[in-house]
Amino acid sequence: MTPIPPADRDSEPFRLPALEPPYRGVLTLRLRPRRGGPEALLRLRYSLQGDVTRPWRAVLGGISAGETPGGTDGWWRVQVGAGLAIDPADGAVLGLEYIGAPPAGWHGVDSADQADALAAALDALGADTVAAVIGASYGGCVALAFAARHPRRAARVLAISAADRPAPMSSALRALQRALLRDGLARGEGQAATALARALAITTYRSEREFAERFDGEPVWRDGRWRWPVEDYLDAQGQAFAARFDATRYLALSESLDLHRVDPAALDGARLHLLAVAEDRLVPAEDVRALAARCGADFSLIHSRYGHDAFLKEEAAIADWLRARLAAPERMRGRALPA
């Protein structure tokens, strides 16, 4: 990796070597966990894409998202890129890998720990503040935790499909997924357990309407039993996920979703923009609306057959919302990036 050159305060501002592909590196961060345990050193991957001399935006996704939001391999490449809603030419886009397993002595990984990791990453990269923290799904939970714990470090926070705490029904379903994962790990069948747990999760990511439209067919007799049309889809989704995501990481991040808690009183509603999806079965729209009412945040509601996955599938609606909330220019205080 080419090192970031030191900035000369008496010379013209420097730029990263190129906008594409994203610039990648590894940061060593020192963190103390929210839920108890010793301070630990963590090495987390990051990506930085775009003009570092203009206000930065941190972009965070769901539990399966990597540290690269934009570019050809980015998890949100439909929104992050040249000419898109989050354009790296308007200011650098920062992505950060999630803490995927609790260090020794930690009692789990909280969304607050991920927020503190983002703050530590900004310190390491020399950015005192960012123009925005933008998060969707689990990333929205982390964005809310960042807003509560580091209120002066983001000019605005945009959270999609995230509330101040998990819905009890969603926690119940994730508890069953974690039971599958623990059982699979105990039997040495972590990959199979990951596939099954993910298949169960998929039923909460999409809406009843979409499933009815796509899978309302007759069963077929195959391999000595009846199979319904939806089973092939669930199997494919689970196996694809298990091929790139291990059971231990899945277990930790699933638990982190249920550990998530943010005090609405700690949020500055004037800086907070929330988007909910009416058909979201995982994060009920009313929970997001209630959070907005308690802290005075901007609230928007869209409809989507894709339910919780609308942030990935409703490209136009999400892009319009992002552009509208990011339109006003903001200034970012910062130091020179380290060598």
TrEMBL record:
One of its GO terms (biological process) is homoserine metabolic process. It holds the Pfam family Abhydrolase_1. GO terms for molecular function: homoserine O-acetyltransferase activity. It comes from Rehaibacterium terrae. Keywords: Acyltransferase, Transferase. This is Homoserine O-acetyltransferase. PANTHER family: HOMOSERINE O-ACETYLTRANSFERASE (PTHR32268). Its EC number is 2.3.1.31.
